[in-house]
């Protein structure tokens, strides 16, 4: 998830100091390791892509003299998130002028191969991991105080005095995560393929578990609630860092937008701040996050604290309904669902509202909040009837969305997850959508997660594992160390931002195969 121009008019932040204090008390413990580069590599074009074209042991280039125009690229062997330290030396005469160097980091080879100057995309180029340094004193140790997410690291010598050559004497990365691998139960009785799908998922999750559940350690390094929902579900089956999930819930409840709306995302540095981005579906997912947390922890105190915030999201969403209970579609529509071009959001939003109301009813009944439970049940009946009356096309056997009655995978999947119809009908909907070649496709792992969820909740576990292997498994086959923010097996250069070098290649909403594998016993 990234740049979305859905800013609230006259935005203001509503702060609950007690909730923020509780969130801060849940700040996580961090786990560190020190890693070194494994290889020195050359990166060049092979066909249409940038790839490693030569590889040798890293120590073969350590201490080698580097003059102006020389460069060296290191491969750490796997994706890393952490802080880099470089030991610098020289050969020749004592350095009589500073060395001027550029350091570039990449999760994939394309980030090393392509030039920052050629990027003219829709979000800030500052996310491209490229730094320039003047080294005044040599020998010295250069400690980079910014946290990087990378596998490849290129050092280019832009200028040195003719009297000496720069040398790289050592490189280390101190990795950081709030995920404790000792809490993860080993898988039993699964295939090697499933074990690999699970291990890459765990690494993706761990790299995104920092001070909060970040959406991506390279970009955007924020707490997005759509990502949080999926991260928390996976965490409950793997790392069991329930305190981190509690921290994120209290942050969202403690830093709300106008009218008590839960924001789409939060910043934690330099100060705690809710963003001014509002998304219909993401606000509703606070209900889901709270219900999932309570189911896995039994933490009634947190449920009582945050119930009003959860219920408020239903109230605010209901304000967008027309007289019949249908979510109104318009040009100012603020709903995510997926990155698919031209995707109409009305049906998907209606389904997510139905889904969220059902979860809110469970919480209201748990709390014996009879008045709100009754109101929610009335609202559920109204919005479900509107979905069937206005969005269900009996002839097609599919849900349609918007004035043009668009058919999309996103609409069908969310209506299935919301259980508007029974299992038999849901399976037919999936079959009908597969047969409809004009249906707007899924384009993100986020949407593919919900496709797998739709399969599983209708008893199709074998098909779910096949879908995971066919999508996330293909990422692995294409060299993924962690799962990507965006992936289309038919168009591997896709980016909604104007260039794939700005894409995130370790992204939380993609890290859920471990959740499905472990919760549902996929083998």
Which class do the helix and strand fractions yield? alpha+beta
Helix coverage percent of residues? 25-40%
**Which class of the domain at 31-177 in CATH terms?**
Mainly Beta
Uncertain runs are none
The proportion of residues in beta strands is: 15-25%
Q: Work out the number of β strands.
A: 16
Rough outline? globular
Please state the CA-atom Rg, rounded to the nearest Å.
Answer: 25 Å
CATH topology name of the domain at 31-177: Jelly Rolls
CATH superfamily of the domain at 31-177: Galactose-binding domain-like
Largest sheet: 9 strands, antiparallel
CATH architecture of the domain at 31-177: Sandwich
Mean pLDDT: 96
Counting DSSP H or I runs of 4 or more residues, the number of helices is 14
Order of helices and strands: EHEEEEEHEEEEHEHHEEEHHHHEEHHHHH
Distance between the termini: 30 Å
Looking at this protein, list some descriptive labels.
single chain; 523 residues; alpha+beta; Jelly Rolls; 9-stranded antiparallel sheet; 3-stranded antiparallel sheet; 20% strand
How would you describe this protein?
The protein has 523 residues and is of the alpha+beta class. Among the domains are: 31-177, Galactose-binding domain-like (Jelly Rolls, Sandwich); 321-441, no CATH class. Helices cover 37% and strands 20% of the residues. The protein has 14 helices and 16 strands. It has helices at residues 17-25, 109-113, 192-208, 225-237, 242-254, 280-297, 300-318, 346-366, 370-391, 409-417, 423-435, 445-456, 461-477, 513-519, and strands spanning 14-15, 31-35, 39-46, 49-57, 71-92, 99-106, 130-135, 140-143, 148-159, 164-177, 223-224, 255-256, 265-267, 273-274, 392-393, 398-399. Strands 2, 3, 4, 5, 6, 7, 8, 9 and 10 form a nine-stranded antiparallel β-sheet that branches. The chain has a three-stranded antiparallel β-sheet with strand order 11-13-14. It has a two-stranded antiparallel ribbon with strand order 1-12. The two termini are 30 Å apart. The relative contact order is 0.13. The mean pLDDT is 96.
């Amino acid at each position: 998830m990234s740049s979305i121009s859905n800013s609230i008019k006259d935005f203001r932040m509503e702060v609950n100091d007690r909730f923020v204090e509780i969130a801060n008390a849940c700040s996580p413990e961090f786990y560190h390791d020190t890693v070194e580069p494994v290889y020195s590599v050359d990166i060049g074009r092979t066909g249409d892509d940038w790839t490693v074209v030569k590889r040798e042991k890293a120590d073969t280039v350590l201490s080698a003299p580097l003059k102006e125009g020389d460069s060296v690229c290191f491969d750490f062997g796997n994706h890393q998130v952490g802080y880099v330290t470089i030991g610098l030396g020289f050969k020749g005469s004592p350095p009589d002028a500073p060395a001027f160097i550029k350091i570039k980091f990449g999760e994939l080879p394309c980030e090393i191969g392509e030039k920052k100057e050629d990027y003219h995309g829709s979000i800030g180029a500052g996310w491209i991991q490229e730094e320039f340094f003047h080294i005044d004193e040599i020998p010295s140790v250069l400690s980079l105080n910014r946290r990087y997410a990378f596998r490849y690291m290129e050092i280019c010598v832009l200028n040195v005095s003719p009297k000496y050559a720069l040398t790289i004497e050592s490189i280390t990365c101190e990795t950081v995560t709030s995920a404790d691998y000792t809490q993860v139960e080993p898988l039993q009785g699964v295939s090697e393929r499933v074990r690999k799908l699970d291990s890459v998922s765990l690494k993706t999750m761990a790299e995104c578990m920092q001070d909060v559940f970040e959406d991506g350690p390279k970009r955007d390094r924020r707490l997005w609630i759509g990502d949080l929902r999926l991260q928390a579900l996976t965490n409950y089956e793997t790392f069991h860092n329930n305190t981190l999930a509690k921290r994120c819930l209290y942050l969202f409840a403690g830093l709300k937008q106008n009218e008590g709306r839960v924001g789409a995302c939060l910043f934690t540095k330099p100060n705690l701040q809710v963003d001014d981005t509002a998304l219909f579906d993401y606000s509703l997912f606070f209900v889901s996050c709270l219900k999932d947390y309570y189911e896995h922890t039994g933490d009634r105190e947190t449920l009582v604290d945050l119930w009003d915030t959860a219920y408020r999201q239903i109230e605010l969403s209901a304000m967008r309904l027309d007289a019949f209970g249908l979510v109104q579609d318009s040009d100012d529509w603020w709903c995510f669902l997926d990155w698919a071009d031209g995707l109409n959001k009305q049906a998907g939003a209606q389904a997510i509202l139905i889904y969220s109301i059902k979860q809110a009813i469970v919480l209201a009944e748990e709390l014996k909040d009879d008045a709100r439970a009754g109101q929610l049940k009335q609202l559920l009946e109204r919005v479900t009837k509107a979905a069937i009356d206005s969005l269900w096309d009996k002839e097609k056997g599919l849900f349609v969305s918007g004035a043009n009655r668009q058919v999309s995978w996103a609409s069908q999947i969310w209506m299935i997850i919301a259980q508007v119809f029974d299992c038999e009908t849901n399976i037919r909907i999936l079959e009908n959508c597969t047969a409809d070649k004009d249906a707007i496709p899924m384009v993100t792992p986020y949407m593919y997660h919900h496709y797998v969820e739709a399969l599983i909740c209708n008893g199709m576990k074998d098909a779910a594992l096949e879908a995971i292997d066919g999508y996330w498994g293909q990422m692995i086959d294409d060299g993924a160390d962690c799962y990507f923010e965006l992936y289309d097996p038919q168009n591997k250069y896709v980016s909604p931002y104007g260039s794939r070098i700005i894409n995130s290649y370790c992204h939380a909403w993609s890290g859920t195969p471990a959740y499905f594998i472990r919760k549902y016993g996929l083998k």
